[in-house]
Write a structure and sequence with these properties.
Blueprint: E1 2-8, H1 19-28, E2 33-40, H2 43-48, E3 57-64, H3 84-102, H4 132-152, H5 162-173, H6 179-182, H7 186-199, E4 225-228, H8 236-245, E5 249-253, H9 257-267, H10 272-292, E6 295-298, H11 301-309, H12 330-334, E7 340-349, H13 356-369, E8 374-380, H14 395-415, E9 431-435, H15 444-449, E10 451-456, H16 465-472, E11 476-480, H17 485-489, E12 494-496, H18 501-512, H19 515-532, H20 535-552, H21 591-597, E13 619-620, E14 623-624
Parallel strand pairs: 1-2, 1-4, 2-3, 4-5, 5-6, 7-8, 7-10, 8-9, 10-11, 11-12
Antiparallel strand pairs: 13-14
Helix pairs in contact: 1-20, 3-4, 3-5, 5-7, 7-10, 9-10, 13-14, 13-18, 16-19
Length: about 625
């Protein structure tokens, strides 16, 4: 089949998010053809180039989300100034969109959670917490803007125009608006309008045609399935392709995009009205993505809870753990040497969310019980640019991480003055800060293999990749109970509350003193990781999901050959038989199609008993649901 892979800030670029698992997925499903539709986040990301693509990637189209205004060159964006009639149409649709976003949520589970509202007490108003009517209004306005962009060749600068800001201002001043939105001033409205323009920029892209569907050309209308690698802007082209051409949508989220938006809004120090409006907008967009997706694949139970909270149908959720390359850790995991028995290892990104401060205080308690213990802190050291291979972050974030690293080093020097074993020996600090790739830490496998216990001290975590890597290496672990840690560990390691240095220290001391327990936990952790978190299980899961979606939601288009001529027998005759053949059986032979008839579908003529017009009777060629002579 032909898959349209939708990405934002990642694959096929060499830097950014989700690039590794996307590359492994594409290479693992070489029997399918992939078209890549990528949204880039920065000039640096585009300048770094692409990964080497496999031969079954047939098409790559890119567009930037970081430019000030949509262009008309090779970035894929279209359109100039709108005409008078189009401007009136845009004003009506944008007003409907703004009112759906600004309207205060109804009382319910979504009210009062304060997410993104700057303490206003109002939640995003999505999913179970928002009124269904407002969600429908948002969807109608969104698809109306998409149709306008298709008719006019793009929205041009309308989304960032003065008219758009005035429409937002009227919506915020209208009765029933959110409490935080009513206090929005002109700078707040300008900031919010700019964010909306960036998020809706995919509406103006020329990605949605279905020309040459049988010859490998065309756009998203020519694919059999759209696979969005995250929510938000990456999934928006999939929504439009489904709206225009009926292409089914699969959404994968290993880090919930909506949650990331909330955190980013707080880190950006935006005003309370802007945070409230952004939370509402992205919440509405997430709810629509979840509503239209044929299947949603969270990477863990933590992400799944967020998706359910934002309105995802539980019946459409399939948890698929990220696939990681286990072979590079095989040598360390299979060897009998346990590593240095008194060494603790921490591996990750230097960031305040990793809570190295608590780890250092915990290690001070460990040293009181085990004076010979050592702690290795290994990671990609920040340089202030924030554009490392795994960060995809802005320069401000890089400078913040660099300042945090300096603070951690100063605390380590204060807690652990350089110690010497004798009067003529040089003092040495028991805590070392090492950069991954340096001579003392050449690779991840060597780092994990150097210690006997791997520690994770985070206060915020999604899917703990470093923990899985340690499990591949057969190492016992001590982790804080955040994100998907408990789901990943599954009883093969020790878990303590976050921000509790004393509990972290006690768990580390318990493992340092018991080598047999470390060995048992490490063996169990390796077996669990090899069963659940390999590339092979990930690729196998998506292979089955692709077939499931396409079998349930085939795209109805005229099949043509390479010459553009109609291709006979392109669709099997079963594809034209009405009824829901995969619905649960309601009893008796033929129960599957009987279940479909309850929703208004008509049974095929050959399945009706004499005299049955196809409506109302529960018989199939003489076989009744209650049994009888047809049972033989």
């Amino acid at each position: 089949m032909r898959i349209g892979l939708l990405t934002e800030g990642g694959y096929p670029y060499v830097s950014g998010e989700a690039r590794l698992w996307c590359d492994r997925l594409v290479r693992g499903l070489e029997q399918h053809e992939f078209d890549i539709y990528a949204l880039s986040r920065s000039q640096e990301q585009e300048d770094a180039g692409w990964l080497e693509l496999p031969p079954h990637v047939g098409l790559v189209r890119t567009a930037p989300l970081w430019t000030a205004r949509p262009g008309t060159s090779d970035d894929g964006a279209c359109g100039g100034a709108l005409g008078r009639r189009a401007r009136r149409r845009f004003a009506a649709l944008y007003a409907e969109l703004a009112e759906a976003v600004v309207c205060a949520p109804a009382d319910g589970p979504g009210t009062g959670n304060g997410l993104g509202s700057g303490g206003s007490g109002e939640g995003p108003g999505v999913g179970t917490g928002g009124a269904p009517g407002e969600a429908d209004r948002f969807a109608n306005a969104l698809y109306g803007l998409a149709e306008l962009a298709r008719d006019e060749g793009g929205l041009g600068t309308a989304l960032s125009s003065e008219a758009a800001v005035r429409i937002l201002e009227r919506a915020c001043r209208a009765p029933g608006a959110r409490r935080a939105a009513r206090g929005a001033r002109v700078p707040d409205l300008l900031a919010f309008a700019g964010e909306v323009e960036s998020a809706l920029r995919p509406l103006s892209l020329d990605w949605y045609d279905d020309a040459s569907a049988g010859s490998g050309g065309g756009g998203l209308g020519a694919v059999d399935l759209c696979h969005a690698t995250s929510g938000g802007a990456a999934a928006l082209p999939g929504l439009i392709a489904k709206r225009f051409h009926g292409v089914p949508l699969l959404v994968t989220e290993y880090g919930v995009q909506l949650r990331a938006r909330y955190i980013a809004a707080g880190d950006a120090e935006l005003s309370a009205p802007v945070r409230a409006l952004l939370a509402a907008f992205h919440g509405r967009l997430a709810a629509e993505v979840y509503r239209q997706a044929a299947v949603i694949t969270p990477g863990n139970a933590h992400a799944r809870r967020w998706q359910e909270r934002c309105g995802a149908d539980r019946a459409r959720l399939r948890t698929v753990h990220p696939g990681m390359e286990a072979s590079r850790f095989a040598e360390v995991g299979e060897r009998e040497e346990p590593g240095e028995p008194d060494t603790l290892v921490w591996v990750g990104r230097i960031d305040p969310s990793k809570d190295l401060i608590s780890l250092l205080h915990a290690f001070a308690e460990v040293r009181k019980e085990e004076p010979g213990a050592r702690l290795r802190i290994v990671g990609a050291m920040p340089t202030g640019s924030g554009s490392g291979p795994d960060s995809g972050s802005a320069s401000g974030e890089g400078r913040g991480a660099e300042a945090y690293l300096g603070h951690c080093k100063a605390l380590a020097a204060q807690l652990f003055p350089d110690e010497a074993t004798g009067p003529h020996a040089m003092g040495e600090n028991p805590v070392s800060f090492e950069e991954l790739g340096a001579p003392e830490a050449p690779g991840l496998a060597e780092v994990y293999g150097s210690g006997s216990v791997v520690v994770l001290s985070s206060v915020v975590e999604g899917f703990p990749i470093s923990l899985v890597e340690a499990m591949f290496c057969g190492r016992a672990t001590v982790s804080t109970d955040v994100g998907a840690v408990v789901e990943v560990i599954g009883g093969t390691g020790l878990v303590v509350p976050p921000r509790n240095p004393r509990a972290l220290a006690e768990a580390c001391v318990a493992l340092l003193r018991d080598s047999d327990r470390r060995e048992r936990l490490g063996a169990a952790a390796r077996a669990r990781a090899l069963e659940l978190f390999t590339v092979e299980q990930n690729v196998t899961a998506f292979r089955g999901i692709y077939l499931e979606i396409v079998s349930h939601c085939p795209v109805r288009r005229e099949a043509v050959d390479d010459a553009g001529e109609p291709r006979p027998f392109a669709h099997p005759p079963e594809a034209h038989v009405p009824g829901r053949w995969t619905a649960p059986a309601t009893g008796g032979i033929g129960g599957a199609w009987l279940a479909g008839r309850s929703s208004g579908s008509r049974a095929p003529s050959w399945a009706s008993a004499p005299g049955d017009s196809g409506g109302g009777r529960e018989e199939l060629a003489g076989v009744t649901r209650g049994g009888g002579e047809g049972d033989a």
